[in-house]
Amino acid sequence: MEKVIYSLFLLPWLLALLVFVSPFHRLRQLITFLSFPILTYLSFKVWNLKLPLFITPPEWVNLAVTLFDYGLLLYFLYQGIKFRNFLVSVLAAAQLFLLSWVLLIIPHGETPPIYVDGLTTFMYFIVATVGSLICIYATKYMEQEDLDRENRFVAALLWFLGVMNFAVSVNNVEWFFALFETTTLASYVLIRFRWDSVSISNALQALWMNQIGGIAILLALLFGIKYYSVYSFTDILKVNPAVTSMIPLGFLAIAALVKGAQMPFHRWLLGAMVAPTPVSAILHSATMVKIAPYLILRLSPVIKGTLLAKLLIVTTGFVFVSAGLLALTQDNFKKILAYSTISLLGLMMLTASMGSPTAVLASLLLILFHAVVKALLFMEAGVIEKLFKAKYIEEIRRLVEKAPITVVFISIGFMSMTIVPYGIFMAKWLTLEEASNFLSHGAYVGSIIFIATGSVILTLLYFKVIGVMTRKRGEFMRFKLEKLPFIYLSTAGLLALFTIVGSIFIAHLSADFVNAVVASISSSPAPVKASGLTLITPLSEVYGWQIIGAFILLLIVPIFAYFVHFPEVDRVYEYTCGERVETTLGTYNFFCVSQVEPLIETAAVALFIITLVLGGGLI
Q1: Packing angle between helix 442-470 and helix 307-327, nearest 10 degrees?
Q2: Which of 106, 318, 390, 478 is deepest in the core (most CB within 10 A)?
Q3: In whole angstroms, what separates CA 161 from the centre of its chain?
Q4: Could you tell me the CA-to-CA distances from 499 to 99, 378, 509 in Å, in that order?
């Protein structure tokens, strides 16, 4: 059993090494292709084990993690000095001091440092499938960008998958800090990959912002040792928050908010856009930022119903709405996707903070479908950038006429986050149902308002982009199918297929698979059942015929609308002497919203402070 778990850490690193040393492009592609079936098979093996599973590795591993910790922080310090970045240098020095303090006072414990449960395995599946597909996609992307450096780039992505698997497997919070900061290192290396001035500047920004999250974890360790005399997640979950300090939990929650790019720390994720597109895909979807909702889910049983949880609901709900609003002001396609990621990460952490089985189910569905969909959308962003030289909204007008396959993939991605019966919509529906059971609590009432408002804003955003891509020019023109490389078509096709099939069978996916993960987190499954394709909840039923009917309508209506035309109808205006005036359609410009961005960030800072000070019990 232990060998299977270790393989999920070590095999991606081995594949990364083989890719790095391989001299041939085709060989590198073959090695990368192997990551998908191997990691997926190993994830199924773990799923079939008797969980939860505690593992105690050899003692030398603990020493190796400690030495790695110091080496990593010294590297951060070196980078700060090298590039004369004051914040990176100071924060690295502070981390070295706090880590030394933690290691001096940390008690000897018998709790194993590795813990694998349903939540861990759930993350394994996402990394194995979505993460591997992004790596495969990257082999073709780099062939078109910089084949000479493909080995370094793809190797870094594969190595990152192993780091992520290790991060979600650790029980020791000091080990978690090491892996947390290793993901920071990965983001720093990947963002600066092109080595121009903008890439280096944005990478340093990502570095110092994520270092703040690392400091929060070290402070959580210090206070956890002081108040609980424990430093493992499973031991923390045994504490009674009603009679013990919430300070360690507050700092861990702040670390999650930072890693999840919640305002005001969202700029590091926006800055990642300067890196090659696969970096955006892997940071935004399968790995990196998913540590944020993962950490909140780990803590949810002990923070559920506390002031900290209620403040987290308000803070993340505010970001869900605000980030979506700011996305409307963007004209860069990748930045639109980035802001929507920040927004939906807020929703994932909002549902995780609620802590009830139904809310946890909603959070897991959001994590799963967002990982798949956002990987698909960023892949397609890379396709339109490489094949059609388009990065901005104005450059993708009428894209459907020359790239209908790409537009279909993008439309599936956007609709899956907006419309019934796709998975993300169903997760929002479950959250609203659950929040309606607690209308006597202000935070839950606020969550309903946040979810409703944020969902409307994101719907407006997604259909604005779809409208630009699919707008007709005069009468109907024959589609010209684009020629897509096999790797682009197959990786996107698999993600789109899962989105559709997973949504059609959302009832069984929720009740039979994801609910087992819910039970491992909340000690009891969510009260949902599947009857055929029908999803049954305590308050409602989503019938199978409604799900199938919605898919049929989504297929028929856009096609029908595209072929509808009025061949003999002209449009004229007053004082034009009857001359024909061509009709031009457009979408509303929300640039005015950007004027309130400073106010939004100020409010976000205030909510961060309130969450830590009041929710964390610092006063």
Answers
A1: 20
A2: 318
A3: 14
A4: 43, 15, 12
pLDDT along the chain (619 residues), means of 10: 89 94 90 93 91 89 93 95 93 95 87 92 93 92 82 92 93 93 91 89 92 94 87 85 79 92 88 85 76 92 88 91 87 87 91 90 92 91 86 80 85 80 83 79 78 84 78 60 87 91 89 91 88 85 83 71 56 56 56 76 86 79
Determine the Cα–Cα distance for residues 225 and 12; give it in Å rounded to an integer: 34
Nearest Cα to 16, choosing from 152, 213, 187, 120? 152
CA dihedral of residues 586, 592, 598, 599 (deg, nearest 10): -110
263-296 core/surface letters (b: 16 or more CB in 10 A; e: else): bbbbbbbbbbbbbbbbbbbbbbbbbbbbbbbbbb
Distance CA 64, CA 69 (A): 8
Count other C-beta atoms under 10 Å from residue 96's C-beta.
17
Give the span between the Cα atoms of 213 and 187, in whole angstroms. Answer: 14
Task: Compute the half-sphere exposure of residue 193: CA atoms within 13 Å on the CB side of its CA.
Answer: 27
What long-range pairs does 42-45 form, CB within 8 A, spacing at least 24? 42/4, 42/7, 42/8, 42/11, 42/124, 42/128, 43/8, 43/121, 43/124, 43/125, 43/128, 45/4
Sign of the four-CA dihedral 83, 88, 89, 93: negative
Q: Is 69 helix (H, G, I), strand (E, B) or coil?
A: helix
User: Please, where are the H alpha helices in 273-306?
Assistant: 277-281, 291-303
CA distances from 14 to 7, 37, 130 (A): 10, 15, 19
15, amino acid identity: L
At 286, list the tokens.
Answer: 């399968």
**The tokens 């959250």 sit on which residue?**
431
| Three-state secondary structure readout of 97-121 | HHHHHHHHHCCCCCCCCEEECHHHH
What are all long-range contacts of 532-536, with beta carbons under 8 Å and residues at least 24 apart?
532/507, 533/504, 533/505, 533/507, 533/508, 534/507, 535/426, 535/506, 535/507, 535/510, 535/511, 536/507
Instruction: Round to the nearest angstrom and report the end-to-end CA distance of the chain.
Output: 46
d(CA 64, CA 76): 18
How long is the chain? Answer: 619
445, 429 Cβ separation under 8 angstroms:
no
Q: How far apart are CA 450 and CA 346, in angstroms?
A: 10
**Alpha helix positions (H), 22-131:** 25-47, 59-82, 86-105, 118-126
| Vertex 585: Cα angle to 414 and 336 (nearest 5) | 30
| Long-range contacts, stretch 80-85, CB < 8 angstroms, 24+ apart | 83/200, 83/204, 85/204, 85/207, 85/208
CB-count burial class (<10 Å; 0-12, 13-18, 19+) for 375: buried
Cα–Cα distance measured from residue 597 to residue 452, given in angstroms and rounded to the nearest whole number: 21
How big is the CA angle at 121 (ends 116 and 125), to the nearest 5 degrees?
A: 155
